[in-house]
Design brief:
single chain, 466 residues, alpha/beta, Rossmann fold, seven-stranded parallel β-sheet, three-stranded parallel β-sheet, globular, binds uridine-5'-diphosphate-glucuronic acid
Length: 466
């Protein structure tokens, strides 16, 4: 068979050209289709990115971006953007709660208002005719139901407590837009000495980042700038051995992260006072106790354990000495807080973060009871009041951040605003137990045979968790 000659005819050339054109067209179509696809995918990805961005930085926060709540420590968004806060009736409620009812009354923003000290201070301020707005994040560090009960108590006295976090700078800024607070009583904090080994970040988030969030708004946004009174802690004295503790003693050896964050707070206070002229008073509380107290504290948890027959752990120093605390009754501490508020001078800064007009007040005070008591003695008083013996495990103080003793010298607070603690531990614990049995509906305890049920166990050198 002969090979067919090469096709050189016009028609076959045309066919080849056509098929070439077809190939070009289809590849062009392919390119067009894929670039279309690429365009759509890019558009979609862009929209998704914009959506995620808006989700993270809602418009309200963008408009006051300086007060963005998108802190690295909290992934919560401003409650303003949730729609539950803001608006006419909300503002009316806030203003009503903040309005003083006496001439020259204060208008106070109380953070941590559903906490132990916050509740008592808010009530005391309201009772004497000051205006109070409370803020609390109702976290679950201890039973939030107790915080809700305190909120209900405050509500009954005309004090509004908003559920919000101090790291929500946008909401704080909004509050200052609605009310020109004369004072802030800043009590919101992550409390507890030993819990800091288990959840260190919560101390940084509340006691450092939260404090900065509040100072930022107070210094740069609030007009007028308020005077700030805030809760430091006796724990800043750490390993100080000079006693009684005086404000001039060393506070550079904290024994716990809790203490370190409170000490950091005092340093941060110095900065905001120095740069922005914010009037700031730090109060070093000494183991405050009483009705409506904190369930995580020893006197409270011991009461619960004694009543339910559960053992308690009592710490003792490695040298055998007792651990002692300068237990301070809540009413005395409230008098100290009010005294500090009464004598707080105005801030001297220019709202908006401008240059201060002159030096502003910066103070630190001990608010203690001035008479340390061994923890074992506190337990003995509780046993008497409850009519029931504790089952005690006595263990050597573990490395948990505790200090061997605390003892306040309060002469500075006495001189400056007449602070004079008047409640001894037995009297204060009696009031606490009375509240406890009523609040939890405990049957009136009956006095038991002193030996029955008593059980004391020694665990030499053993470490126990609180
Ligand atoms: O004054 C302060 O600076 C601090 O006082 C308390 O801290 P703390 O004195 O440790 O109070 P509790 O937890 O009630 O302990 C009281 C005493 O009981 C002792 N304890 C505690 C728990 C326990 O299981 N056993 C025990 O013997 C502690 O060592 C301590 O000496 C508060 O919890 C802190 O928030 C506050 O800042």
């Amino acid at each position: 068979m002969m090979a067919s000659p090469p096709d050189t005819s016009k028609s076959s050339k045309l066919e080849r050209y056509n098929s070439y054109l077809l190939r070009r067209v289809s590849s062009a179509k392919l390119i067009a289709a894929s670039s279309h696809l690429l365009f759509r995918a890019t558009l979609l990805a862009g929209l998704v990115l914009i959506f995620l961005f808006l989700l993270h930085y809602p418009p309200l926060l963008l408009s006051s971006s300086r007060y963005s709540s998108a802190s690295p420590h909290s992934n919560h968004r401003s409650l303003l953007s949730s729609g539950s806060y803001g608006g006419g009736s909300w503002e009316r409620d806030v203003r009503r709660s903040a309005a003083p009812r006496r001439p020259d009354g204060l208008s106070v923003l109380v953070t941590g208002a559903a906490g132990f000290v916050g509740t008592h201070c808010s009530l005391a301020l309201k009772r004497r005719g000051d205006g109070v707005v409370g803020l609390d994040n109702f976290n679950a560090y201890y039973d939030p139901a107790l915080k809700r009960s305190r909120q209900a108590l405050l509500s009954g006295h005309g004090v509004l407590v908003l559920e919000a976090d101090i790291n929500d700078g946008a909401l704080l800024a909004k509050l200052f837009d609605v009310v020109p607070f004369s004072h802030v009583l800043h009590l919101a904090a992550q409390a507890g000495v030993r819990y800091a080994t288990r959840n260190p970040q919560s101390y940084v988030a509340s006691n450092v980042a939260g404090l900065v969030s509040l100072f930022e708004v107070a210094a740069k946004h609030a007009d007028p700038q308020p005077a700030v009174v805030w809760a430091s802690s006796s724990s800043v004295y750490g390993l100080n051995t000079e006693a009684p503790f005086s404000e001039i003693h060393r506070t550079d050896r904290p024994a716990s992260l809790y203490a370190a964050t409170k000490k950091a707070g005092e340093a941060i206070a110095h900065t905001y006072n120095h740069i922005y002229g914010l009037s700031i008073t730090g109060l070093r509380f000494f183991t405050v106790y009483g009705p409506w107290g904190r369930p995580d504290m020893a006197y409270f948890s011991f009461t619960k354990s004694i009543l339910s027959g559960k053992p308690i752990t009592l710490f003792r120093m490695p040298d055998g000495n007792a651990v002692q605390r300068d237990f301070t009754y809540i009413d005395d501490v409230v008098m100290g807080c009010l005294g500090a508020l009464n004598t707080a001078k105005k801030s001297t800064g220019v709202p908006g973060g401008g240059k201060k007009r002159g030096p502003a007040q910066l103070r630190v005070y001990n608010l203690g009871n001035t008479s340390p008591v061994p923890v074992a003695e506190m337990v003995r008083i509780l046993e008497q009041l409850l009519g029931k013996k504790a089952k005690k495990n006595v263990v050597t103080l573990p490395q948990n951040g505790d200090v061997p003793f605390t003892h306040a010298n309060v002469s500075l607070a006495k001189t400056d605003f007449g602070y004079r603690p008047t409640t001894d531990l037995a009297t204060g614990l009696r009031k606490f137990v009375k509240w406890y049995v009523e609040y939890y509906g405990v049957q009136t305890p009956k006095v038991v045979d002193k030996d029955a049920g008593a059980e004391e166990k020694e665990e030499e050198g053993a470490a126990a968790s609180a």
